[in-house]
Amino acid sequence: MTPSIKKLIDSKDYNGIEQVLSQNPALANEGLPYDEVNTTKAHPLHRICDGVMNGNYTDDEAVKMAKLFLKHGANINGHELLEKQDTPLIAASSLHADKVALYYIDQGAELNHAGCHGGTALHWAAWCGRPAVVKKLISKQAVLNKKCIDFKATPLFWAVHGLKQGDKKNIEAHLECIHALVKAGADTTIPNADGHTAYDLLEEGDEKIKELLI
């Protein structure tokens, strides 16, 4: 019996993936469950990013698998572009799969789609403190000041909020994201749905962030 595509991904079975997709290319775009408990389906290019986040394999190994799926006809944007549903690029940007995100961008992924909470890949990379992805998206002309749907907040606001709300293990990376956004021309004065700007998130001791926002 041929193993499922999900099991082949989880075990980094490149040859198995190549063989199965060669026989049935339609599987390159078939939704896959997260696991046996969470059966919510997502595109294979998304599920590959889950494995990076979970530590099942490296970013480089994930890119190698993604290349096989794209070779056999996988849609770089996953399934239909639906508002508030993540594309593979948004998944990569939010699941710390940096090299996968960079690869998807180079393969022509839609940059400004509104995924979870209406955030774009730039929102999510900024929130998670992924400077390589933020800089790549900026270089490809992703919309800098686009507001997300649920919070009406920009990627810069997400970057500052992500730093303030996070576990503080990735402070320098978040600061690098903030710096890249401001340097590229992100508007520091745009308020969110509550009328708050990124400045309003700051407290005593946040001098480094203040310096970047000025």
Molecular structure report:
The structure is a single chain. The chain has 214 residues and is mostly helical. The chain folds into 2 domains: 1-110, Serine Threonine Protein Phosphatase 5, Tetratricopeptide repeat, CATH 1.25.40.20; 118-214, Serine Threonine Protein Phosphatase 5, Tetratricopeptide repeat. The protein contains 11 helices and 2 strands, in the order ααββααααααααα. The protein has helices at 5-10, 14-23, 44-53, 59-71, 88-94, 98-106, 121-128, 131-139, 155-165, 171-184, 207-213; strands at 32-33, 41-42. Strands 1-2 form a two-stranded antiparallel ribbon. A hairpin with a 7-residue loop joins strand 1 (32-33) and strand 2 (41-42). The radius of gyration is 18 Å and the shape is elongated. The relative contact order is 0.09. The mean pLDDT is 96.
